[in-house]
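Support request, priority: normal
Reporter: lab tech (M.K.)
Component: structure prediction queue

Hi team, I submitted a job for HTH cro/C1-type domain-containing protein from Sinorhizobium americanum yesterday, and the status page still shows it as pending. I've pasted the exact input below so you can check whether something in the sequence is tripping the parser. The sequence length should be 118 residues. Please let me know if I need to resubmit or if it's stuck on your end.
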Amino acid sequence: MNEKGNDADTATTLGEHLASLRRAAQLTLRQVEDATEKEVSNAYLSQLENNKITKPSPNILYALANVYKSSYESLMEKAGYLTTGQARPATFAISDLTSEEEQALIAYLDFYRKQNKK
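Reply from support: The job had stalled in the queue. We restarted it manually and it finished. Here are the results:
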């Protein structure tokens, strides 16, 4: 980390952010390819870092988050899948919820938290 902070924190695009994370981890493109067991090729990662591909699949982001020991949610936000501060309760893991069910669970969680404030 330099005096100005981590480059990944100030990166404006997903590609710049990924490049900063890779440099901070001191990994080459090929090393990332190997670390993801070829789920992310070095050519694909290069295109990501150069903003030629701007919205990789969540699976790709998950693999990169694991290699870089970074927040998967942060990468999902940078890619535009999530909005900053968007509610991401435990329902994120339940794939067959309707949007109405999810909203009801979020409302209940909000109620529960308000009732249990100290």
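The chain has two domains: 1-84, 87-118. Residues 1-5 have pLDDT under 50 and may be disordered. Let us know if anything else looks off. Ticket resolved.
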